[in-house]
Write a structure and sequence with these properties.
By secondary structure, the chain is an alpha+beta fold. The protein has helices spanning about 10-25, 30-40, 50-55, 65-80, 110-115, 135-145, 150-165, 170-180, 190-200, 200-210, 225-235, 300-315, 320-335, 340-345, 365-370, 385-395, 410-420, 425-445; strands at about 5, 55-65, 80-90, 100-105, 115-125, 165, 190, 215-220, 255-260, 265-270, 275-280, 285-290, 350-355, 375. It has a domain at about 10-240 and about 260-290 and about 395-410: 2,3-Dihydroxybiphenyl 1,2-Dioxygenase, domain 1 (Roll), CATH 3.10.180.80. The protein contains 18 helices and 14 strands. It has a five-stranded mixed beta sheet. The protein has a three-stranded mixed beta sheet with strand order 7-10-11. α1 (about 10-25) packs parallel to α8, α4 (about 65-80) packs parallel to α17 (about 410-420) and α12 (about 300-315) packs antiparallel against α13. It binds 2-oxoadipic acid and nickel (II) ion (NI). The site of 2-oxoadipic acid (OOG) has 12 residues, from β2, β5 and α16. Nickel (II) ion binds near residues 58, 217, 219 and 391.
Length: about 450
């Protein structure tokens, strides 16, 4: 008997679509954001990534332990999503007790087939800078009692992991059960436990007071984030006051810009020590939107980081002043031409062959000059720690307790790596994309390197 298998790209596309439907019903304003995004994108129909934009999303979820992260890694693996990058959000201006990674396709063709990723944060429940030893013990005990993956999904994952794929007959059910993992849990929340955690960190209470995880946000990609921000404000939605990340400057957009509408009040069911059921509002879920630019090398990235740092050193600035200062700093540090950025080793490019190379042309520079190699930008597919921290912080109902030591704990990177199996370095992925395209281009042009 042959079993037809459902490919990871199709499964991931189905997951993204179903999650989007679910989230629109849970958070109606998300529907408004997607609609406004589509209107802005339609006005830029000829954008180079236009075909990707309609379905492109990233989601964000938060889990309570490295064990739960391991469960999600197994689940996402079957959707063709692997862990890329490590972000320690405890080192930010408003320290958040989590470390994060993003599950995403690591191959450009797969990303193009279904551009969906999940920013996934893990509570570091034994970080003594946030949690007293009593709290650590209670967290460990409560977290050990929950499981994100029910028996039916666990069996599907186990079977599929053994053969390396989901059989087509189980695919619909598999996606349905995967979506349920991220559905808001209806179980009443222990009110006093929630209060205790909330006093330390509203992110900790969101994660560890509930019986399971839930989608925190789902983010569409827009071509003009400034226009989107304005459109949403014009339509009566309060946005956070800042667009995170490097703004547009004289050169091509770099890395990632993000903004969001503020977290909304949502009713949740609680139960107190006497067993009384109560309704309370929480404010944790928001709508985010992003604009993606080109991927930069470590050298290019450090220039952008230096520009951002320089502006931070300038002290308090109004928002327009801050953006103008950032533009100046970027213009001063980076060349505005994409080709020069690539030649300088600041940006990655995909090389593509054009026509037939004339006799004698050998070097890449000669072939580019002769028009036999075209340089196509590689999109930045990852996240930025400062923006992620800014997005977390600007949507908290309050900051939580003050924490003074905010240095990274290096052992936690190792624990995250163990939980996800393989943790990919984003730069290595862009580098591999670039060099494979160069090899392909040389072969296609029939040129051997000189
Ligand atoms: C994640 C916040 C960071 C991003 O896109 O950088 C983030 C969260 O709130 O769980 O979503
Ligand atoms: Ni996000």
């Amino acid at each position: 008997m042959t079993v037809t298998v459902a490919g990871p790209n199709e499964l991931r596309a189905a997951l993204a679509e179903q999650l989007s439907k679910m989230y629109a019903s849970e958070v109606p304003k998300y529907g408004h954001l997607v609609d406004a995004t589509n209107r802005v994108n339609a006005a830029h129909g000829d954008d180079r990534d236009a075909q990707r934009l309609g379905s492109e999303r990233h989601g964000a979820v938060r889990v309570a332990s490295f064990g739960e992260l391991e469960q999600l890694a197994a689940l996402f693996g079957l959707f063709g999503m692997q862990a890329v990058g490590y972000y320690d959000l405890r080192t930010s201006a408003t320290p958040i007790p989590v470390v994060s990674t993003a599950f995403r396709p690591i191959d450009a063709h797969d990303m193009a087939a279904s551009p969906f990723r999940m920013f996934t944060s893990t509570l570091v429940a034994d970080d003594e800078r946030f949690f007293s030893s009593d709290m650590q013990a209670e967290l460990a005990d409560r977290i050990a009692r929950r499981s994100l993956i029910g028996p039916e999904l666990a069996e599907l994952i186990a079977n599929a992991s053994a053969v390396g794929a989901i059989d087509e007959g189980s695919a619909d059910r598999f996606v349905e059960l995967a979506v349920d993992v991220f559905r808001l849990n209806a179980e009443p929340i222990d009110a006093s436990w929630h209060e205790k955690l909330d006093a330390i960190s509203p992110v900790a209470s969101d994660i560890a007071a509930a019986a399971g995880t839930h989608l925190n946000h789902l983010t569409p990609r827009v071509v003009d984030i400034g226009a989107l921000h304005q459109l949403m404000e014009d339509e009566g939605v309060t946005m956070i006051d800042r667009i995170q990340g490097p703004p547009s400057w004289d050169g091509p957009d770099v890395l990632l810009q993000q903004t969001s509408f503020r977290a909304l009040d949502e009713t949740r069911h609680f139960v107190n020590a006497d067993g009384d059921h109560l309704e309370r509002t929480v404010r944790v879920r928001f709508g985010e939107v992003e604009q993606r630019g080109i991927a930069l090398t470590p050298a290019g990235r450090s220039k952008v980081d230096a520009a951002m740092d320089a502006v931070k050193q300038m002290g308090p600035l109004s928002e327009p002043e801050r953006v103008a200062a950032l533009r100046n700093e970027l213009n001063a540090r980076l060349d505005a031409s994409f080709a020069v950025l690539v030649a300088n080793g600041d940006a990655y490019a995909e090389y593509r062959p054009v026509g037939t190379a004339a006799e004698g042309l050998r070097s890449v520079d000669e072939l580019i000059a002769a028009g036999n190699i075209a340089l196509v930008p590689i999109t930045y597919e990852d996240f930025l720690p400062a923006s992620a921290a800014g997005i977390f912080a600007s949507n908290l109902a309050h900051d939580g307790a003050a924490v003074d030591d905010v240095s990274a704990r290096l052992g936690d990177a190792e624990r995250l790596r163990e939980a996800v199996g393989t943790l990919h370095d984003p730069y290595a992925l862009y580098e591999a994309h670039q060099s494979a395209s160069l090899v392909h281009t040389r072969n296609a042009l029939g040129v051997t390197p000189r």
